[in-house]
Amino acid sequence: MIKKYLEYLEYQRHYSKYTIDNYERDILEFLEYLERENIDYLKLEYSDIRLYLGYLKEEKHEKSTSISRKLSALRSYYKYLCSNNKITSNLFSLITSPKKEQKLPRYFEYNELEELFAVPLLDNKLGQRDRLVLEILYATGIRVGELVKIKLKDLNRSERTILIHGKGRKMRIVNYGEYASDILDMYLNDGYKELNKFNSDYLILNNQGRAITERGVRYILTNLIKKTSLHKNISPHMLRHSFATHLLNEGCDILSVKELLGHESISSTQIYTHITNDQLKNIYLHSFPRAKSK
Fold first, then answer.
1. pTM for the whole thing?
2. For residue 257, how far is the Cα from the chain centroid?
3. Catalytic residue annotation
4. What are the pLDDT digits (tens) for 153-184?
5. What's the CA gap between 171 and 187, in Å, rounded?
């Protein structure tokens, strides 16, 4: 039954291989636990699940994030069993995930971005490419996995838009501004022609002229940050976080930011409101008459 479920995730839900592998591992771990405890996986009781969660927390010392991930996998699997009439109800739907510590996303201040963007030298192909990576990630807020999939046909340079192939094969249009447009034109007219030895239709290429990988983008960003005075570990997501945070700081509404980021749920976007609380407090103190100093 597990094999059919994994095929369902791949061909009908279009989950990534990474997610499917994690689900398979978490489900098999649970089934091994049930076998040791002599419990039939099709005849679960609510108490069996609670004992398993206690086992993960007390004996395996799993973190809340890990337990939540395992619960998500099992909830999905048992929902599948229920829809295929293997069980009458999904008891995992009654179990809430443990509260996890919410880590605020790290982002760059405006002046830090200016220093970072000044690092790539624009008189050579790699410098132009590296600057374009920075500009697009920040200008659009796209994920690094979306960046590496961009092809030339996805660009509409006259409208300054890019067709993005997102998670679950969902597509959306993102916009970019004048800074990104200028470096894109420079790259395509100069550095890209020199890099593109194999007539690739991908936009961002590696040193050998092939489509760059997510790992390759991270390598580029790590090398760039080393050439600045910034004492930060950089990741592609930091530019995405900066994009969202700066939009909210400048007054963009959260629903628009949600759409720009390609989030399915507003709950994924709400984490950025914690970052902007200080900004809102300053606006309040300077704007509300009875909040100002006497």
1. 0.64
2. 14
3. 143, 167, 237, 240, 263, 272
4. 999 999 999 999 987 778 999 999 999 999 99
5. 25
